[in-house]
Amino acid sequence: MKKGKEFHTFRGYQILDLEDKILTSSMEDYLEMIYRICMENGYIRINILSRKLNVRPSSTTKIIQKLGILGLVDYEKYGIIRLTDKGKALGNYLLRRHEIIEEFLLNLGVKETLLKDTEMIEHSISPNTLKNFYIFNKFLQENPSISNFYIKFKEKYKNEDIELTYPIK
Amino acid sequence: MKKGKEFHTFRGYQILDLEDKILTSSMEDYLEMIYRICMENGYIRINILSRKLNVRPSSTTKIIQKLGILGLVDYEKYGIIRLTDKGKALGNYLLRRHEIIEEFLLNLGVKETLLKDTEMIEHSISPNTLKNFYIFNKFLQENPSISNFYIKFKEKYKNEDIELTYPIK
DNA sequence: TAAAAATGTTAGTCATAGGAAACTTTATTT
DNA sequence: AAATAAAGTTTCCTATGACTAACATTTTTA
């Protein structure tokens, strides 16, 4: 009987996730970006998407084909990419998740690494943890005095050198 | 001139990280576990480590060889694994990081998925974000009345159905 | 101490998702 | 319309870190 406290490697978790998740982390990133742009523009092309995500078109083609098979985008060779209803629903969730995490990190005081940390955490947390992030955002929103108090509290530690960086080169 | 707002895929970030990071995420998981056990036991063996991380011994052997080359563990074929000073310093940091994140999530109300979320976030955040987590823990610790107030606040939303889960099967 | 069991290693396979190069198709110019 | 440029695709390659199977070594037990 496992105690539910079983450790796994990062890779191990990823492999376990494959079994019950529809999309891999990278596929989610593509879909999220497609959603962002299609909501404005109606469609997107391989090239633009590649540039937005800093990958080569050949990588994008491959992923789009997969998203097509999954019924998340409408797409045929050399054509434009559009979201299906299913793709829209999922894309909307992904963007929402992104925004909750981004606001959460912002509330905590994260700045320079905001985008990267958001994009990495997106793929790391369970729906319930996301909900907790969301509730925390709400908490600060509804209690501005605590929010301000917290901001002042942070200031104290701002320059304090708590060594929380890699100890070796 | 990039605006520092450049998006990347999950994979893209991982590949960028390889350039300036010493260890991959999985290697960090192995080292952290080695540290946990060596601090108690002085050494560890391939088999035990494999069981702890839910991987096969052949996977462990390969990673240990890499950690050996990096000078983080002392190890020779069929022998025991010990941490070098360098390995201890890094392992200590990794465990510390783990514990800060775990406490942070606990403070937010994460329970069932605590271990998995902690292990995933470990590899997702920058040192500065870790520091922000740490400061938040301190904040609640030093302000128990706010901490209690926050716990009550969470209760209100506990059963509220904010749909923050995958919208499709 | 010889046989059996447990432990550890090596070699080869897999999937993901990135890239380069060569090619095809579509769009733009002249 | 033909030539050129841009966009997209395909094929093949790479790395990581899982796995299995076969083999080697060490430890235990009879």
Fold blueprint:
The structure is a homodimer of 169-residue chains.
Chain A (H helix, E strand, L loop, with lengths): L9 H11 L4 H17 L4 H8 L3 H13 L3 E2 L7 E2 L1 H24 L5 H9 L4 H16 L1 H15 L11
Antiparallel strand pairs in A: 1-2
Chain A binds a DNA duplex (30 and 30 nucleotides) through helix 1 and helix 4.
Which key phrases capture this entry?
homodimer; 169 residues; Diphtheria Toxin Repressor, domain 2; 2 domains; two-stranded antiparallel sheet; 8 helices; 2 strands; 2% strand; globular; DNA-binding
Describe the protein's architecture and organization.
Two copies of one chain form a homodimer. The first copy, chain A, is mostly helical. Chain A has two domains: 10-90, Winged helix-like DNA-binding domain superfamily/Winged helix DNA-binding domain (Arc Repressor Mutant, subunit A, Orthogonal Bundle); 96-158, Iron dependent repressor, metal binding and dimerisation domain (Diphtheria Toxin Repressor, domain 2, Orthogonal Bundle). Helix content of chain A is 67%, strand content 2%. Chain A is built from eight helices and two strands; from the N terminus they run ααααββαααα. Chain A has helices at residues 10-20, 25-41, 46-53, 57-69, 85-108, 114-122, 127-142, 144-158; strands at 73-74, 82-83. In chain A, strands 1-2 form a two-stranded antiparallel sheet. In chain A, helix 2 (25-41) packs across helix 5 and helix 5 packs across helix 6 (114-122). The radius of gyration of chain A is 19 Å and the shape is globular. The N and C termini of chain A lie far apart (41 Å). The model of chain A has no long low-confidence stretch (mean pLDDT 93). Chain A binds a DNA duplex (30 and 30 nucleotides) through helix 1 and helix 4.
